[in-house]
Specification:
By secondary structure, the chain is α/β, with parallel strands linked by helices. The longest helix has 37 residues. It is globular, with a radius of gyration of 31 Å. 51% of the residues are buried. The protein has 26 helices and 25 strands.
Length: 921
């Protein structure tokens, strides 16, 4: 071959080996780029321009940031600003673009011609997002394209995430949500580098709001001159808090992020409470003028110091739920406090206030609030405290639509995710459909996103690792998917598969096809947890850690564990729960919608496909291998969990059939499925014991399902496995006992309860002996017809029913030894009856061990609903039992060491409901 031809060949091969950096027309990129912004540009424009400069430099461009258009064209010029800026108008002339109309709030347009580029925002945030969009294009194409014409704007007005300034466990001597801002409690809170990383990630995902959740933050952030003793931190910490909070607010604003401080009502600081001999929180306490004055002045001081920070208000949970108090507290304490702070600054503009609908009548509150304050938003939980469906309906959907139609922006809160933690979740398909439902079903226009897992343990994840993993890194795809669809959820599904395939391929250094396999694993596994919870779960709340499993008694008698019906009636597709399914099977009636058996059949298939997909991708992984291995292990965890739940659901169907057949053979059919469930649970134990520190990040007694999480116990699969082993052993033992003629009618052992010595200080109208013929109220003729045998002879405390309806119930007493108070709640949810403890809406609902029903249908009073017994435990001393408004029974006091049998006494006017919990004891 001639020498010159050889040279041409070598040169040609070298060109083929070079990275592809030419633009679409084949022209090489300009060697230099000048990014031009006005000298008086807003900090958001400066931030966006700096991000664009960094991307261009990373791809080999000699890039400068300047305030003047270059006198001579030595390269490309990118002009950045608002569409109304002089600089941008000049740039539009150069690229021959006519800006006929604004792209809309936070929108932008990018136009180019002959090495001149214009990034124009409808506002400062729009210019920022335009810079980020052009930066993303450069990163994806490895080049600044010669020709670009793009206009875009977000669909959702509010797109935000939250950080809980809270902890997995309660602080000594404090209640739920009571966590002062201190370096000891939250060392990460003072880490500026971490905050900047997090804020950068929010900005990159086009999120425009950040919420900080805390029970009562004001006593850590402001001083109230009338109440100097309310400050909960020392002076040095207070100065640190002021400094970091100002830093955070400023840096958030620079990235187009609105900082919002959340708080609960009514919570007061501990030193204030102690000085005035008050509880820091008491759900049943009426509005106290002293507390209202302190709260109003705290809010005023906060607004005066941080006027650009918004407020997120939770009216319920720490004060009695729906009622006039909600309206009064919002309109006569909170809003006046905000106005007082503005008045001190001589400002008339209103900082935004977000009213959270949780445990309050938000539409009613908004009706009274709108005439006196205008910059209002509303917020409600999307699927409760879980992720269950993109087909919401019923009562919950009605509430969301009502809020959306008020005329303000309704924000959808993807909250807690108690059914997902701790395993990774990244189903783009499921999430896109959820955001579509937010628009189409709820008519909402905002997103508020919780961390995917470990909310209470921010910033760390639950993974076991040599160094704790950050949620920010581990769950990148969770944040990115929700953010992408809150910007635009109307994206073509095929395009989305390619988009996420490329994202995953880039992250793990594999091929596009292998990236798509990883996405397939995410999407197959992404159906498992939502479907399990919505068909057989107890609650959508964080009192259930779904991935730890459920006891069989919770499958077959869920109503004994506080079954939360909204989960099935609204936060699931139309379908049936286990009791409905088995009743229809027995009566040979047609089924409706999604059934438990359908889910039991589906979820192992999802698990198998997830494992197959992740296995296919494994051979191509060349980057972030340790993280990929964790993701792969999660897919195997999902598979084991799906098979364990599937088998247990099928076992439960056999056991529930026994309610109708009384045929022990039906119970025997359940045994192989329970054994298979336990085998798969053991696989889950093996897969998690070296990979996870815990399943649930809330590690308090609020955790109830499958078992109590008091003092951080029962938070791993290793701890739960012996309980499931024992459950199976007890079940086999009790089946054997049923085969014996002498034991054919198994009964729960009931031991008579003995009265404890207590001194009633106030409340009530004298004692009565609990027995047939007793009158528990002194202002009605209601008479007890029958009572569970072990309760006979207890000394009840008579109540005035009318006063209970108006003021609630309060019994003050003293005791020298630990005692339990037996309280009878009428099984009807109306204002006439005191509501049962419910952790979904009341974080304090198990502070005294009162959350679970002990004896169901234990007292029969003709003309009134059935009565369920709950117990409240108290230490020695002077104590007060407070119950919410409505009629209830105080049935007696027993020593705390006396065991109250857990069963159904069956005292119903229309017959008994068979309680099967004894089969597993």
């Amino acid at each position: 071959m001639p020498k010159q031809n050889l040279g041409r060949l070598v040169a040609g091969l070298l060109v083929l080996c070079l990275p592809v950096t030419a633009n679409a027309k084949g022209n090489p990129p300009a060697k230099s780029v000048s990014v031009v912004i006005a000298s008086n540009s807003h900090s958001r424009i400066k931030y966006g321009a700096s991000q664009l400069v960094a991307s261009l430099k990373a791809h080999g461009y000699n890039t400068t940031l300047t305030n003047q258009w270059p006198a001579t064209a030595k390269g490309a010029v990118v002009a950045v600003g608002k569409i109304t800026d002089k600089l941008i108008k000049s740039g539009f002339q150069k690229v021959k673009y006519s800006s006929a109309k604004s792209p809309g709030k936070e929108g932008f347009t990018i136009q180019s011609s002959k090495n001149t580029y214009v990034v124009a925002g409808a506002d400062n945030s729009g210019a920022l997002y335009g810079c980020l969009e052009l930066s993303d294009i450069v990163n994806q194409k490895n080049v600044l394209p010669a020709d670009i014409h793009q206009t875009d704007k977000p669909e959702m007005v509010m797109r935000g995430a939250c950080v809980g300034v809270q902890k997995p466990e309660l602080l000594p001597g404090r209640g739920t949500y009571e966590y002062p801002y201190t370096p000891e409690n939250f060392p990460w809170f003072y880490d500026k580098a971490l905050w900047l990383r997090y804020l950068d990630s929010l900005a990159a995902n086009r999120m425009n709001s950040l919420y900080l959740w805390n029970g009562h933050p004001f006593s850590s952030l402001v001083k109230v001159k009338e109440y100097p003793y309310a400050l909960e931190v020392d002076e040095a910490t207070f100065k640190k808090n002021e400094e970091i909070y100002r830093f955070l607010a400023q840096e958030a604003d620079r990235r187009g992020i609105w900082l919002v401080q959340g708080f609960y009502n009514i919570i007061i600081p501990k030193p204030f409470a102690e000085k005035h001999h008050l509880a820091t929180q008491d759900r049943n306490r009426p509005i106290v003028p002293l507390i209202a004055d302190y709260t109003r002045k705290s809010i005023a001081a906060f607004v005066e110091k941080y006027p650009n920070v918004g407020l997120l208000i939770t009216l319920g949970e720490a004060m009695e739920g729906v009622g006039q108090d909600d309206v009064d507290w919002f309109t006569k304490t909170i809003i006046p406090g905000v106005k007082d702070g503005l008045k001190a600054l001589n400002r008339t503009d209103e900082p935004p206030i977000v009213l959270r609908a949780h445990d309050s009548d938000a539409p009613r509150v908004m009706k009274d609030a709108q005439p006196i304050y205008h910059n209002l938003y509303t917020m409600a939980k999307y699927n409760g405290e879980a992720l269950t469906t993109y087909e919401p309906h019923g009562q919950w959907a009605d509430l969301h639509r009502t809020l959306s139609r008020i005329g303000t922006v309704q924000i959808e809160n993807v909250h807690i995710l108690a059914n997902l933690e701790p395993f990774r979740y990244g189903s783009a398909d499921f999430i896109q459909k959820c955001v579509l439902a937010m628009h189409n079903v709820y008519e909402a226009n905002g997103l508020h996103l919780y961390p995917q897992a470990s909310y209470w343990d921010w910033p760390y994840s639950a993974d076991k690792a040599d160094q704790r993993l950050l949620q920010l890194d581990r769950d990148w795809i969770w944040y990115k998917e929700w953010a992408r669809y809150s910007w635009n959820c109307h994206r073509d599904r095929k395009d989305e598969i390619n988009y996420w395939g490329k994202q995953l391929a880039a992250r793990y250094g594999c091929t596009l096809q292998q990236g798509k396999e990883i996405l397939e694993a995410y999407e197959q596994s992404g159906e498992i947890s939502p479907q399990i919870l919505r068909r057989v779960g107890i609650t959508d709340g964080n009192r259930q850690t779904m991935t730890l499993g459920m006891l069989m008694s919770q499958f077959v008698n869920p109503e004994k564990f506080g079954l939360f019906s909204l989960l099935y009636n609204s936060e699931a597709p139309v379908g049936e729960i286990l009791s409905e399914y088995t009743a229809k099977e027995w009566n040979k009636e047609p089924h409706v919608g999604e059934t438990p058996l359908m889910v039991a059949d589906r979820i192992p298939i999802y698990g198998k496909k997830a494992v197959e997909a992740i296995d296919k991708a494994t051979r191509g992984i060349n980057r972030n291998k340790a993280e990929f291995d964790r993701l792969k292990n999660d897919m195997y965890c999902y598979d084991a969990m799906a098979n364990s739940y599937s088998a247990k659901i099928k076992a439960a169907i056999h056991i529930l059939r026994y309610k109708y057949s009384n045929n022990v053979a039906d119970l025997e059919k359940a045994v192989p499925d329970m054994e298979r469930s336990l085998t798969y649970y053991k696989k889950l134990v093996d897969l998690t014991k070296d990979s996870y520190l815990y399943a649930n990040s809330m590690q308090t007694r609020q955790r109830k399902i499958p078992v109590n999480g008091l003092n951080g116990a029962m938070k791993t699969w290793v701890e739960l496995y012996p309980l499931y082993e024992k459950e199976l052993a007890n079940f086999n033992k009790n089946i054997d006992s049923l085969k014996s003629p002498a034991n054919a009618s198994k009964k729960v052992e009931k031991k008579a309860l003995a009265n404890a010595q207590v001194n009633i200080i106030s409340g009530g109208n004298g004692e009565y002996a609990l027995q047939a013929g007793a009158q528990p109220f002194n202002d009605t003729a209601a008479v007890v017809k029958s009572v569970a045998v072990e309760l006979v002879g207890l000394k009840g405390i008579k109540q005035n029913k009318a006063q209970q309806l108006t003021n609630g119930t309060s019994i003050k007493f003293s005791n020298t030894q630990p005692v339990k108070v037996l309280v009878g709640f009428f099984n009807e949810r109306t204002k006439r009856y005191s509501p049962t403890p419910q952790l979904e809406t009341d974080a304090s609902a198990n502070d005294f061990g009162q959350a679970d029903v002990k004896i169901s249908n234990a007292v029969l009073i003709p003309g009134m609903p059935a009565v369920n017994i709950h117990t409240y435990s108290f230490k020695p001393g002077t104590n007060t039992l407070n119950l919410s408004k409505g009629a209830g029974l105080i049935l007696g006091f027993v020593t705390d060491n006396q065991q109250v049998a857990v069963y159904d006494a069956g005292l119903l006017a229309d017959g008994n409901i068979k309680d099967l919990r004894w089969l597993f004891n």
